[in-house]
Sequence to fold (677 residues):
Amino acid sequence: MKPMAEATPVVEMRNIKKSFAAVRALRGVDLVLRHNEVLGLVGDNAAGKSTLMKVLSGAYIPDEGEIFIEGKKAHIIDPMDARRLGIEMVYQDFALANNLDVAANVFLGHEAVRAQLGPIGVMDKRHMEQETQRLLNRLKIDISSVRLKVESLSGGQRQSVAIARATAFNAKVIIMDEPTASLSVAAIGKVLDLVRELKAQGCSIIVISHRLEDIYAVSDRMMVLRHGRKVCDCPVAGDIHEFHERVVAYIIGARDDFAERAVD
Amino acid sequence: MTLPSEQLTDARERRVKVSLIKNAQKVLQQNIREYGMYIAFFVIIAIFTITTNGLFISSRNIVNLLNATSYIAVLAVGMTLVIVIRHIDLSVGFLAGFLGAIAAIALKYWGLPVYAAIPLVLALGVVAGLVTAFLVAQMKIPAFVATLAGWLGYRGALQLATMGTGTIIISDEVFNAIGNGFIPDIFPPDTGLLPGVHKLTLILGLLAIILFVIGEINGRRKTQAYNFEVLPMDMFILKLVFVSALVGGITWVLAGYQGLSWATVVLLIVVSIYYFMTSETVLGRHIYAVGGNPEAAELSGISVKRITYVVFGSMGMLSALSGILYASWLRSATTIAGNLFELDAIAAAFVGGVSAAGGVGKVVGAIIGALVMASLTNGMNLMGIDISLQYIVRAAVLAAAVIFDVTTRSRGR
Fold:
């Protein structure tokens, strides 16, 4: 373990504020993600989870606040900025092109090129297929061929492809927005295994989920948002029933660890 | 009683046969959408060959058929890509007619040489396509409406361009050769082994077969070296034999008349370029990605706007090419040139397997689709079938092609 890396968080967001017209979606949220940590992000609908993550991934520009990536101040104004900094987001609706095969989706926007004809690159398809196969093997994702079209895959397999795609280009931070929503029980198990596998391989991950048992299963720490404010930031520990009760209390507003900071 | 060794060979033979049929079934099932179109095309050719006592398949008819298909086929190639990115272009017919008239005027009244007139018209086509793209991508006007405006506008422009003169007769021999001429033969026609046969066409056909076989074998070897799945050996050989026989057959038929026509050469060049572009380049992949899921493409850093400009720009250029082919074929620019080309091109694209939902459709399919539709017209004309019935038959084929496509797609899921 490297003590220096331990000390500096991968991501630090300070006092993030964001409003949409009259609606104050984020009222000064702090977030810390440490190296090789899985952070669960929980909250009711409209609590600000997705908004916070869209700020981090460059989809929204915050009204106020600062973001530090590995201790350095970052200016993220579009998704490509975030990607360059090693932040990848896995969207809830998978964001895959169903008409293309697995390898094409993994490399979409990053195609390997073997020759350049003026502005047009000639793809190195075999290289991309081979690399994709290697990636699937590394993450223990069970898909029979990288040439299968995404439309022929199951929901769980699609989610795995979406996650594999996010990790393919040395992402430091992977944000997953409801990775287990709309999946079967068996598929949820596989996706959670994949999250553990990524952690084992050194990734830092933020998981947004409504399913508290999933957060409990994979997270090291969790954060609860309520009405655009952080109300809880604590390690995931203890018995699942006790955990569940505690989290629900935060979500509905019965408990609040940061009440003194709620000036407005 | 049979000897044990005989029984063994028997069993082995049976096993080989069974595996051949199984492999064929598997390959056919996996690719039913793609192969269905080729099978349908063959059935149509066979039916017309029988009903016209071989007149349909005669060299002269096939050459005419190809020349008459070329100007729709190039439009169908561009239209396929437009439909792949979930748009439509209704303006291409009259744009082709208008640009054909511009070509005629440039040659006849502006005194431009043919080598300047053609690039000029192609460039104007690109500009027209970019204007459409601007309306669609920048102004967010639905393509149907934007190109309907184009349809009206170019129709007016065509009438304006031909108002003073009426039909413009083109006398430039080089220009007219594009739609009517044939590639020259390297040997005089009645010397050597095969008198009356176009040797250069035969040589080119043979060359195409050799290049295809070598390319396929190399590709297979490389794919295997990377441990990826390839066609079973028997199916692979069957494919090689089938395609070689097809190319060989067409070459033989063409060589029996005057050889390869320039219009066919133009069509082959367009298909080759677009096939390569769509299947091998990053640009091609991005076009299909935008068609499959525009949001996902945008999130992956692909500019949907840029792809829209490229696709409509290419459509405009192909419209210009279509106009040139048509004007050259008729040796003149008429006041109604291009009428209904757009609908023929759209029909060809759909028969060729493009999906209105976007993201699906190949350029080779568009060519086959155009050939199917043109063969129907040509064959029914040879049979002397009434024109009104012809429309109904073509309607049925178009509907059947799309129904087949939709049902095989939903089953494939």
The first helix of chain B runs from residue 4 to 30.
